[in-house]
Design brief:
With 335 residues, the chain is mostly helical. The chain is 80% helix and 0% strand. It has a domain of 226 residues. The protein is built from 14 helices and no strands. It is globular.
Length: 335
């Protein structure tokens, strides 16, 4: 009995530590940005000779700006993403959902007066047509643009945060191996998201919701830590194995982001909230030290999608990377 109680306390402690580390990025960002600026100033001594050389170089090449000086700060990148994802994308969706559509509904109801059936009929038709038009002409193009922008800036934010804490990335893989790892990782994430959706359909409502939430917590933790682990040279099998082994910590780490992105019934709004908050969690993940060995029983939730991904990957990409991948896959994944 004491053994079981000790194990439960260890799991709860790891979950709480993960939750704390995830929200700590809100304050860690200011410290990281300040230290990066301090190091930049220390690496560029303010001497009279340097000023004169700088003036001469500016006169000879007035349009030339050093890469170090032109490099945007970490806070600047995150604020730009916040303006784009929150100020433009999210606000436009909220205005359409909660301002434009209600106003049109009021106009239709006032036009038909007491004829409720006719007003409801025209309202449903108008709402459907406007929603389709809005999503095809604004939401989908902006969503594709945001995916591209976010991927580029997320990577830049992760690289800056990693450079602050650990120096240069340790990537010792060939280009073909990196490409194969990236494609396989995306496939695993998509299938795991599909698995999370399926488990939520379990007839027992509470059980389905809890299992779905656990899946999303682990998936968001993988999203967050993948930048750091990739720069550390960890391959996908090692990243997934580490999450499955230390699942209490990563459930706690992904819990805040999973909770706030399920508050709305609109997947577009949830996606905007994710893109708005995710850069902060990248910094949190880079600064975090996961609690390990909190549970003696790994949670092999990624094993089914890895088995399916192996089959799909080998059929679509071919057998070029099969031998390399199988040799580096842990035992529980190859089963």
């Amino acid at each position: 009995m004491l053994f079981i109680l000790t194990g439960l306390l260890g799991i709860i402690y790891a979950i709480l530590c993960g939750t704390y580390d995830s929200v700590r990025g809100m304050t860690a960002l200011f410290h990281v940005d300040r230290e990066l600026n301090k190091r930049k100033k220390q690496s560029s001594p303010n001497t009279t000779i340097r000023r004169r050389e700088s003036d001469i170089s500016r006169e000879s090449t007035p349009t030339k700006i050093s890469k170090q000086e032109d490099e945007p700060a970490l806070m600047t990148l995150i604020l730009k993403l916040s303006v784009f994802n929150g100020g433009i994308f999210l606000m436009s969706v909220l205005l359409f959902e909660f301002l434009i559509l209600p106003l049109i509904n009021i106009m239709i109801v006032s036009t038909f007066g007491e004829d409720i059936m006719m007003s409801n009929k025209y309202w449903e038709l108008t709402k459907t047509l406007l929603t389709i038009f809005y999503q095809t002409t604004w939401v989908l193009p902006l969503l594709l643009l945001s995916k591209i922008v976010n991927c580029l800036w997320f990577q830049d934010i992760a690289d800056k945060a990693y450079k602050y804490s650990r120096g240069r990335p340790l990537i010792n893989q060939s280009i073909s191996r990196i490409v194969a790892d990236s494609i396989f990782s995306i496939l695993v994430q998509v299938l795991f998201l599909l698995q999370a959706t399926i488990v939520e359909l379990i007839p027992l409502y509470i059980v389905g919701k809890i299992l779905g939430l656990v899946h999303m917590c682990l998936l968001y933790s993988l999203y967050t830590f993948e930048y750091k682990w990739f720069n550390m040279g960890w391959e996908l099998h090692r990243r997934l194995s580490f999450i499955e082994t230390n699942w209490p910590y990563f459930i706690g780490f992904g819990l805040p982001l999973a909770f706030v992105t399920q508050m709305s019934s609109s997947w577009v709004i949830n996606g905007c909230i994710f893109a708005l908050l995710f850069p902060w969690f990248i910094v949190s993940g880079n600064e975090a030290n996961p609690v390990t060995n909190s549970s003696q029983y790994p949670l092999h939730l990624f094993s089914p999608v890895i088995a399916l991904s192996n089959a799909l990957f080998n059929k679509t990409i071919g057998t070029r990377f099969q031998k390399r991948k199988v040799n580096n896959t842990p035992t529980h994944v190859r089963r």
